[in-house]
Amino acid sequence: MEHNFEPVIQVNDLTVSYHEKPVLWDVDLAVPPAVLMAIVGPNGAGKTTLLKAMMGLIPATAGEVSLFGKPRKEAMRRIGYVPQRTAVDWDFPTTSLDVVLMGSYGRLGWIKRPGKSEKIAAMSALEKVGMTDFAHRQISQLSGGQQQRVFLARALLQDSDVYMMDEPFQGVDATTERAIIALLKELREAGKTVVCVHHDLQTVPEYFDWVTLLNVRRIASGPVSSTFVPENLKKTFGGRISFLKENEEGVA
User: How many Å from the N-terminal Cα to the C-terminal Cα in the chain?
Assistant: First the structure.
């Protein structure tokens, strides 16, 4: 695999199987620093599985993942994670501020309670996502877009070098979507790397500068301008994609 950068994330020969059926097969991937990367592919392509396997949240059948040139376990603290909103129990009785404060546990450990400085940082993170007024609101009373903003604030409090996000734009309103992408671009400007599972092909060229096309295997990975092209999209999605017919000219 040719690349002329020092990868922040390096994936070699990664295979993940459920009940002996490969969900990801022999995936190689190198993610450069300070990019916004989308992982794109059809349903069942293994996008969430790839994200979770890169973080070690699910076991790999084969292959290895390194972060910043080190074995993954040594660098896990440098990763912030925003799971799918649907994967969370939103009826759990807790406030927005408490959810955000959970982002400080990695640094504090589970024994030490967050103190004044953590609370100030948490409020600052809520302010960045436009949620200061909802700090003491129960999370069950928030809209989907507001819940997603709280999740992002929690990730911001972790002050990570790499952010892994599973469908951060899913089920949010247009205002929240604009706020999220503005925040992600700010993170990139600060030298952070953001990896998102993403399903809306229309917004890939606008939102991201790097893309990985996945359908159990890695079809292609690289800059959006040279990778997000009709030929690769057809290989990834087959002929089932009306988006290509409408945008043959403009996809690349």
Answer: 22
- d(CA 155, CA 133) in angstroms, rounded, equals 19
User: How far, in Å, CA of 64 to CA of 28, rounded?
Assistant: 10
Residue 111 has pLDDT above 80, yes or no: no
What is the number of alpha carbons within 13 Å of residue 173 lying toward its C-beta? 8
Q: Cα angle at 147 between 47 and 33, to 5 degrees?
A: 45
- Contact status, residue 176 vs residue 149, Cβ threshold 8 Å: yes
Taking the C-alpha atoms of residue 39 and residue 116, their distance in angstroms, rounded to an integer, is: 38
Q: Could you give the angle at which helices 174-189 and 144-158 cross, rounded to 10 degrees?
A: 10
Beta partners for 95? 138
* Average pLDDT along the chain: 88
219-248 pLDDT, tens digit each: 999 999 999 999 999 999 986 665 544 444
Whole-structure pTM over 0.85, yes or no?
Answer: yes
Over 70: is that where the pLDDT of 112 sits?
no
Containing 229, the helix (H) or strand (E) segment is none
Average pLDDT over residues 154-175: 91
Q: In what order do the strands lie in the sheet with 21-31?
A: 21-31, 9-18, 62-67, 70-71
pLDDT per position as a tens digit, 240-251 = 665 544 444 444
Q: What is the CA radius of gyration of the chain?
A: 18
3-state SS, 82-117, equals ECCHHHCCCCCCCEHHHHHHHHHHHHHCCCCCCCHH
- SS3 of residue 126 by DSSP: helix
